[in-house]
# Entry
Amino acid sequence: MVDWQPAAKLETLRTRARMLQSTRAFFSTRDVLEVDTPLLSAAATTDVHLESFATVYRGPGAAKGRVLYLHTSPEFAMKRLLAADSGAIYQLCKTFRQGETGAQHNPEFTMLEWYRPHYDTTALMDEVEEYLTTVLGEHISLAPTERLTYAEAFKRFAALDNVHTADVARLRTCAREREISDVPGLGEDRDVWLDLLMSHVVQPMLGQHGPSLVYDYPASQAALARVRSGPPDIAERFELFINGIELANGFHELTDAAEQRRRFASDRARRQQRGLRDVPMDEHLLAALESGLPPCAGVALGFDRLVMLATGARSISEVMAFPLERA
Amino acid sequence: MATYGTNDWKPGLKVMHDGYPCTIIENEMVKPGKGQAFNRVKLRNLKTGRVLEKTFKANDSLEGADVVDTDMQYLYSDGEVWNFMHPETFEQMGADAQAVGDAAKWLKEQDMCIMTLYNGVPMAVTPPNTVVLRVVETDPGLRGDTAGGGGKPAKLETGAVVRVPLFIENGELLKVDTRTGEYIGRVKE
# Structure
C-alpha cells in the first residue's frame, strides 16, 4: 500500500504555519517588502557546488523548447529588484538543489531570503539575531548569540592558528591530527580541505550554547560577497549555526559588475574542469549590476531547519508535509 | 564487478575498500550551503567485523564486492573443516575456523545458517538468531529458586557456555540468542 500520509505531524505543520506568520509579521513591522520572484529562470547558478534542476518550456515563442532552470536561491532576481530601487525586500519561497538529500537536506526546500540596502554584515547579523529572538524564541529558549570570525573558529575548535595563511600541507596535518581518515581524491584544492575541516571538525562545535555567527570568510570562498583587501583578503560573508547545523549564509553583497562577471567565468571554467554541466551565467543580473546595485547586505536562511529547531526534529523530513520520498 | 557511486551507497551494499570486502552500514551526506559535499560513511569490514568511519568526496565511487549470502545446512566438523550443504543443490562446502569464527559454538548438526561467500569462497558463517540446545553440564538445579537473581554457567551440547537461572538442570533444552549469547528460556520436548 502506498504511504500517502504526511511525513510531518499536524502539530509540526501548525508550528510551521505560526513561524511563517511571525516571519511575515517581523518584516512587515520593519517595512521590508515581501516579493515573489520566479522559480524558473533562463540562467542557472554557476556555483561549482550547486546543481540546478533543468526543465524545458515548449509553447508560444519556444516551439523547439527552451531550457529553464529552477533556482537554487532567489538571489539573482531579488538583486534585480534592488537595482530597480525596491528598497529592503524579503522572500519566502521554494528552492531547488539537485542531488541534496539527507537528514538536513531535501532537494526542494523553503528558503527565507532578505536584503537590506546600506547594511553591512555587522548590521545584518544584528537583524538576524533579532529575527531569531522573535521567530525561534517563541518556541524554544535561546541563549545569547556568540560572534566569532572564521579564523577564531578554526583556532578554537581545530587548534589551527592563522587559517587564512595555512597551506594544504598544514590543513592535511590538521585533518590527520583530528582523526579524519584520509579522504581519497582531495588533491591540492585548498578550499576542499577547508570545507572538510569546517564540516567535520569546526561546525559540529558551533552553536552548542546558543546561536553562533561566524564571519570574515576566506576570500577564496567569497561566492557573491565583497572582498575586503588584506592581507589576508577577507570575504565579507557570515554564516549562522545552531547545534552544529548551518542555518543561514549572508553576504555584504558584491556590487561590481566586472568582478561578478569574472567570478561567473571562473566558476564556469572550474565546472568544465570537473566535468560538470555548463550553465549560462545570468546576464540579467550582470546588466542590473552594471546599471547600479545599491550597497547592501543579504542573507538566506533555511526555513525548514529553523522549524526543525523549533520542534526538536532530528530530520528535515519530520518538518515537511511531503519530503522527496513521498513527493 | 560494477562500480558504485556515493548515491548508490545504501545500507547492505557490499563494496571493496582498502582491499577488503565491506558492507555499507550508514551513508550520510554532509553538504555546506556553499562548498564541497562529502559522504560520511560507516562500513563493516566483512573479514574482520570491524566497523570503520570514512569520509569520501561526494560522487566518489567504490568497486562492488563479490559477496553473496546463502542459506546452508551445517553437516559436521572434524575440528579443522566445518562442512555445510546447500539445501536445494546438495552442493557441499567446507569452511575453515577463521570463516566459521564464533559461530562454531552455536552450530548443531542439521541446523540452517547463513554462509557468506567472498569470490565464491566461504568467508563468514552466521548462525540463526536463536538456537535450541541441550544442557550437558551445569551445577545441580535449585528447586524453588525461579526468580534466580545470580544464575550459574551451563555448558551446552555445542560447547557454548551461557548464564542460566539456578533452576536449570542437566539435559534440559534451552533457547539461546546467538547475537548476545543470552539465555531466553526453556523449551519443552
In short: Chain B touches chain A through 21 residues (CB under 8 Å). Residues 114 and 125 of chain B are 6 Å apart (CA to CA). The helical segments of chain B are 97-100.
